[in-house]
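Quick review question:
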């Protein structure tokens, strides 16, 4: 048996690899995303990052009709979120939550890659953004 045949046989015995999701979604966030997608009659919410704010990056959320070629699909708790390819390295391991209290009603991102954020919490910085800022400065 050739080496490729051995590998194929081993892969068949192991089964499909379980891959960890890029982001995790709390029950509160899933409920809110589900409500928003039903309201707008859209199949996806797209998560991205944009260069802005006093600390470099800010999260963006938009409705989407279809998955882009390089979008990462996260399906969890009955909702589908697309992660833009440019955002991927900045959001890996992030937990998406939704807070609704007397002071605010917003999505919150608990990001282990964040190296700092501004005082108002609207923007953040990762190792990648701080490195590119040093190179361009």
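Suggested answer, residue by residue:
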């Amino acid at each position: 048996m050739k080496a490729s045949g051995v590998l194929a046989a081993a892969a068949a015995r192991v089964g499909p690899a379980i891959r960890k999701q890029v982001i995790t979604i709390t029950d509160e966030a899933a409920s809110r995303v589900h409500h928003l997608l039903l309201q707008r009659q859209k199949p996806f919410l797209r998560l991205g990052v944009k260069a802005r704010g006093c600390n470099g990056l800010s999260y963006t959320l938009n409705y989407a009709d279809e998955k882009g070629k390089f979008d990462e699909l996260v399906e969890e708790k009955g909702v589908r979120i697309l992660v833009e390819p440019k955002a991927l390295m900045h959001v890996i391991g992030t937990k998406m939550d939704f807070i609704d209290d007397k002071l605010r009603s917003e999505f919150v991102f608990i990001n282990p890659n964040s190296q700092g954020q501004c005082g108002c919490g609207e923007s953040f910085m990762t190792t990648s953004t701080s490195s590119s800022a040093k190179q361009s400065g």
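Why it works: The chain has a mean pLDDT of 80. The helical segments are 3-14, 27-40, 88-91, 127-136.
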